[in-house]
Amino acid sequence: MSEHERELVSPDADGDDRAIEGALRPKRLEDFVGQRRVREQLSLVLRSAQRRGRTPDHVLMSGPPGLGKTTLAMIIAAELGASLRITSGPAIERSGDLAAVLSTLHEGEVLFLDEIHRMARPAEEMLYVAMEDFRVDVMVGKGPGATAIPLDIAPFTLVGATTRAGLLPPPLRDRFGFVAHMDFYHPEELETILNRSAGLLGVDLHPEAAREVAGRSRGTPRIANRLLRRVRDYAEVHGNGELSLEVAQAALQLYEVDQQGLDRLDRAVLYALLRRFRGGPVGLSTLAVSVGEESETVESVAEPFLVRSGFIARTPRGRVATPEAWSHMGLTPPPDAAFGVASLFDEAGQPTTDQ
Ligand SMILES: Nc1ncnc2c1ncn2[C@@H]1O[C@H](COP(=O)(O)OP(=O)(O)O)[C@@H](O)[C@H]1O
Ligand SMILES: [Mg+2]
Predict the structure, then answer these.
(1) Residues that bind ATP, according to the entry (predicted)?
(2) What's the pLDDT at 3?
(3) CATH for 35-181, among 3.40.50.300, 3.30.2270.10, 3.30.1050.10, 3.40.50.1000?
(4) How far is CA 102 from each of CA 95, 117, 124, 128, 179, rounded to the nearest angstrom?
(5) Is 85 helix (H, G, I), strand (E, B) or coil?
(6) How confident is the model at residue 349 (pLDDT cuts 50, 70, 90)?
(7) pLDDT in tens, 67-121
(8) Where are the chain's structural domains?
(9) Contact 12/115 with Cβ under 8 angstroms?
(10) d(C-alpha 69, C-alpha 73), whole Å
(11) 290 alpha carbon to ligand 2 midpoint, in Å?
């Protein structure tokens, strides 16, 4: 399977996305669609800080890729009328890297630290102190003669983003005054986002087409915007440029993104699970081998969405297809299919243990 196909429903940004995302990002809080709780709470945090003439509390945003964390960081700076400094966990390999950023911040600036869970451990300690006391301790000299010279830094607001909040050490998490948990979007919200993007891209998106694309976007604005661009490409080549329902369906069929947003790998995994393993249970690595993929790829790319969509359940004995998986793939389960095994599922159809 080529990279390109895989990337169509991947929540991670590719080069193409990065080039266009700047243009599609909402610039103000009021244009940010969905995530109402986060929006309202954040608005309060920002407004009260402004009223008190102080820098707002540090903000942590956690959630899967493509849901708007970077967008919100930019919005926070814009709402505060502050400038934004951007860095990321992987760029901070030593505490000196962080000291260099912190010591050059201007008063009131917003520092966006993306993928904060990937920052080097020694830098974390320095960040605690900076967040709490607006101070960095600069080490001068080496070995037993080394001394720490405290250096005041300008009050700033840290905005951290992470896809893995669980990996953050609790002392770091505790120093954020506000934690925003980003959730997957409802199809209606994705429709709104698509209509907005279509306006910015200058394409004529029919309402039924917007609904169709929204339903296949895996709850993720980045994927919605990407599918919109592919449908637009198709409409330019095969139609009159209008994005009608028929055009959207034909385009998404060509790109092999199905009604539920499953792509070719997702479907291959489901198909193997259903046909070769009679719905499981089967181990992940066996399943991966049968579709000619690395276990890692199946586990990190296909499985999370299949589980979230309710097509696959993880059980102590392996992966099991749910009744929805059989019906989605248009197949009839054998009478002895695993979801009938009482020890694996309770009456509500939920797996008895989530390994
Ligand atoms: N709530 C939203 N409203 C409108 N567009 C959004 C929203 N959230 C994300 N997007 C769009 O999705 C794309 C990805 O968002 P981004 O902030 O880069 O996600 P993350 O940083 O969480 O991976 C951006 O181009 C942005 O335009
Ligand atoms: Mg981001």
Answers:
(1) 24-25, 66, 69-71, 132-134, 175, 185, 222
(2) 47
(3) 3.40.50.300
(4) 10, 18, 13, 12, 21
(5) strand
(6) low
(7) 999 999 999 999 999 999 999 999 999 989 999 999 999 999 999 999 999 999 9
(8) 35-181, 187-254, 264-340
(9) no
(10) 6
(11) 34
Mutate to test the pocket of ligand 1, among 36, 39, 67, 182 (most ligand atoms within 8 A of CB): 67
- Which DSSP string corresponds to 100-165? HHHTTPPTTPEEEEETGGGS-HHHHHHHHHHHHHSEEEEEESSGGG-EEEEEE----EEEEEES-G
297 is catalytic: no
| pTM, rounded to two decimals | 0.88
* CATH number for the segment(s) 264-340: 1.10.10.10
Q: What is the three-class DSSP state of 32?
A: coil
Residue 1 is predicted with a pLDDT of: 44
Least confident of 43-52, 181-190, 336-345: 336-345
* Token pair listed for 27: 């610039």
**The Cα angle at residue 3 between residues 331 and 288, in degrees rounded to 5:** 45
- Ligand of minimum distance to the alpha carbon of 222: 1
Strands 84-88 and 312-315: unpaired
What is the pLDDT confidence band of residue 293, given thresholds at 50, 70 and 90?
Answer: very high
The CB of 221 under 6 Å from ligand 1? The reply is yes
Distance, in Å, from the CA atom of 74 to the CA atom of 62, rounded to the nearest integer, reads 15
Instruction: Quickly state the pLDDT bin for 248 (edges 50, 70, 90).
Output: very high
CA distance 213 to 290: 30
E strand spans, the chain:
59-62, 84-88, 110-114, 135-140, 147-152, 157-162, 178-181, 312-315, 318-321
Cis preceding linkage at 281, omega within 30? yes
Q: What is the DSSP letter of 205?
A: B
Residue 174 to residue 166: CA distance in whole angstroms: 13
Please indicate if the annotation marks 25 as binding a ligand. yes
